């Protein structure tokens, strides 16, 4: 699904020097590399504060902790996402409240959110799934109307832009009160292990986030609140500092590959190529098709040709065993349930070339045609 080896070889000299500098300095936790990365990412995102942390899940948990929510408070999110989004809500004894998705973007359907808002609703976590930003303008208006926090799960869309109706563009993850991201190796901006970051334009929230991520401490050995230990390793920061310089180039390569796929696959009856909204760029963390019939058979046929593919996500969160106690059942979120049976993601990464894509496309076309005949 990704070619991390090929990507590394292109920037190997820079990466190796950056890691060697960490080894020579012996600043393994914190230090100048982490500080520099936070500053560089803040400049790239055009946001005031960036707090690096241990991983994307930690980023979400710390963000919610910083808002001072109480057990039983409700947090609205999507059931069609990686489990971490809902997991941190439940871990903090908050209540996840799911809202179905838009069938075109796979993102939470903003038009369905207000119906589930009540006095216990304190936060909404929009997930910018597969690399495309949620429709943030009406969501922010809704949040302001009901005095609700917005925490953006930007793990899959870093570097994306959202355009407001007045023509103003803003980076995904910087529009809500807090943004969170992951630097898992397969992400568009990925390190060589685990890593994450939290960003905000609110200085007070930033101070709270920093304190929570450091055992609830502002001054060493003095603890003002209950916190966690979540720090980005200096080696990972060094890697990210190098790769951040290439992020726009990486995004352009993914967009080029996605456009090539879509052009070659657009005429196949029964397969829908990814939709791109007018007000959002798409950075294509995943290139996800909707296969109307025989999705699993197609996946198996591709596998026999040595072609990777993946299903993100096979079971919506409301139907996962861990969340059955929340009272949801099959049929509650029909779009999410339908998409879980139809989505199929193809390989997409910075090193994908046209001959490889041609092989994937032709294999898919042949396989799908044969499956339909059967």
The largest sheet has its strands arranged as 1-9-8-5-4-2-3
In CATH, the architecture of the largest domain is 3-Layer(aba) Sandwich
User: Could you state the CATH homologous superfamily of the largest domain?
Assistant: Type I PLP-dependent aspartate aminotransferase-like (Major domain)
Instruction: Work out the number of β strands.
Output: 14
CATH fold category name of the largest domain: Aspartate Aminotransferase, domain 2
What can be said about the biggest beta sheet?
A: 7 strands, mixed
Explain what this protein looks like in three dimensions.
- It is a single chain.
- The protein is α/β, with parallel strands linked by helices.
- It has two domains: 4-244, Aspartate Aminotransferase, domain 2, CATH 3.40.640; 247-373, Aspartate Aminotransferase, domain 1.
- The protein contains twelve helices and 14 strands.
- It has helices at 4-10, 12-25, 32-45, 56-66, 84-91, 136-146, 203-213, 234-244, 247-265, 295-304, 334-342, 354-373; strands at residues 49-53, 74-77, 95-98, 121-124, 149-153, 161-163, 169-171, 178-182, 196-200, 217-219, 222-223, 271-272, 287-291, 343-346.
- Strands 1-9-8-5-4-2-3 form a seven-stranded mixed β-sheet, sandwiched between helices.
- Helix 5 (84-91) links the parallel strand 2 (74-77) and strand 3 (95-98).
- The protein is globular, with a radius of gyration of 21 Å.
- The relative contact order is 0.16.
């Amino acid at each position: 699904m990704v070619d991390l080896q090929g990507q590394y070889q292109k920037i190997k000299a820079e990466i190796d020097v950056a890691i060697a500098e960490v080894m020579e300095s012996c600043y393994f936790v914190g230090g100048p590399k982490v500080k520099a990365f936070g500053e560089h990412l803040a400049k790239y995102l055009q946001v005031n504060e960036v707090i690096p942390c241990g991983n994307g899940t930690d980023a979400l948990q710390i963000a919610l902790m910083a808002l001072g929510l109480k057990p039983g408070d409700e947090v609205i999110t999507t059931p069609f996402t990686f489990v971490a989004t809902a997991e941190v809500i439940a871990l903090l004894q908050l209540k996840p409240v799911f809202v179905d998705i838009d069938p075109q973007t796979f993102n939470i359907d903003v038009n369905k959110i207000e119906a589930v808002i009540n006095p216990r609703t304190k936060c909404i976590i929009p997930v910018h799934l597969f690399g495309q930003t949620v429709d943030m303008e009406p969501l922010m208006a809704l949040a302001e109307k009901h005095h609700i926090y917005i925490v953006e799960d930007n793990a899959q869309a870093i570097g994306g832009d959202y355009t407001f109706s007045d023509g103003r563009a803003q980076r995904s993850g910087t529009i809500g009160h807090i943004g969170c991201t992951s630097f898992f190796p397969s992400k568009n901006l990925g390190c060589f292990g685990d890593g994450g970051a939290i960003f905000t334009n609110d200085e007070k929230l930033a101070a709270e986030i920093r304190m929570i991520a450091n055992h609830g401490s502002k001054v060493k050995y003095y603890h003002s609140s209950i916190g966690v230990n979540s720090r980005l390793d200096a080696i990972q920061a060094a890697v990210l500092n190098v790769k951040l310089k290439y992020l726009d180039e990486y995004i352009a390569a993914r967009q080029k590959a996605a456009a090539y796929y879509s052009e070659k696959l657009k005429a196949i009856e029964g397969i829908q190529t990814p939709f791109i909204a007018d007000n959002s760029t798409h950075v294509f963390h995943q290139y996800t098709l909707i296969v109307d019939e025989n999705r699993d058979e197609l996946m198996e046929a591709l596998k026999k040709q040595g072609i990777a593919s993946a299903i993100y996500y096979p079971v919506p969160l409301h139907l996962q065993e861990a969340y059955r106690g929340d009272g949801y059942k099959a049929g509650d979120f029909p779009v999410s349930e339908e998409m879980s049976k139809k989505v199929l993601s193809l390989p997409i990464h910075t090193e994908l070339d046209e001959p490889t894509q041609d092989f994937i496309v032709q294999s898919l076309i042949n396989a799908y045609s044969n499956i339909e005949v059967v």
